[in-house]
Give the backbone structure.
Amino acid sequence: MRLFAAVVAAFAVAACRAQAPSQPAAQPQTDPMLQQLRTMTARFAPVDLAADISTLPATERQALAKLIEAANVFDALFLRQVWAGNETMLLTLAGDRSELGEARLRYFLINKGPWSRLDHDEPFVPGAPPKPPQANFYPAGATKEQIEAWVKSLPAAERARATGFFTTIRRGPEGRFTAVPYSVEYQGEVGQVAALLREAAGLTQQPTLRRYLESRAEALLTNDYYASDVAWMELDASIEPTIGPYEVYEDEWFNYKAAFEAFITIRDDAETAKLTRFGGELQAIENNLPIDPKFRNPKLGAMAPIRVVNTVFSSGDANKGVQTAAFNLPNEVVPRQVVEISRAVSASSPRRGR
């Protein structure tokens, strides 16, 4: 009986164990910051876009490669324009091989800095300061009011240089503010880009492209962009690069200073032809805008060209955050008065498209 009771008891225990609900395996906890970064990054969906270069002759493909190499220089330069600490922070992030570190690095590269541009520039890297509204165009420690007072004290010609697109403001040896041309401030980078543009100019067989590249190389070294802006608007080639300092949005103090960017594109003749009609209607649209006639432009021309292009590579200000789908350049007023306005409609970069 004792043996029988022991066996029954053993079966009873086994049955109880079998009927007991199994406990779920413990799930690894995801770092909340890592999950937040993944969620923010997911708003930028990777998209592969194609640009057909099969019809380009060998020399044009070689020129295209030189232009991509030149454009790549502006990514690092733009980082420095946004914030003086960007390059150091990038190196620090690149050395962190953890999941969280790699997520921060990826989002940093998308935003070109440690601030989320879709979230009112909230910092997402520990230790990052608030995004400086003056970017890195003005001296450290200077206030907006100090710069304004200094600009007002200058003679007209010096004031024009100080408020121009292509100068930074720094402190001289005696601590006084001074305007420094981009050709001096960024001489290493613009010298490198100018050399590559001249190499590309020597390779292409397209006259207007050669003229633009040669004049843009000269502009980078002399800080005079007028002739190269005119050459860009007269560009009629299968390869359409837009490369240089253009947009002023990073200078949130005054919108004076232009940031470097590049769009290296291939013209899409078939899609451009579809938009030809719109170019012919622009003057009529301008003439009928519901605004005071004195604000209308009576000289847009019979047809302001609209170009559709496929982007091969974009960099700098053109490759931050949300990608642009179209651009209307240049921003300087003077060249617009001597040639028709040029507009380009482009897709996001196939190499860096998001």
Q: What stands out?
A: The chain is about 45% helix and 15% strand. The chain has a mean pLDDT of 87. The longest helix spans residues 58-82.
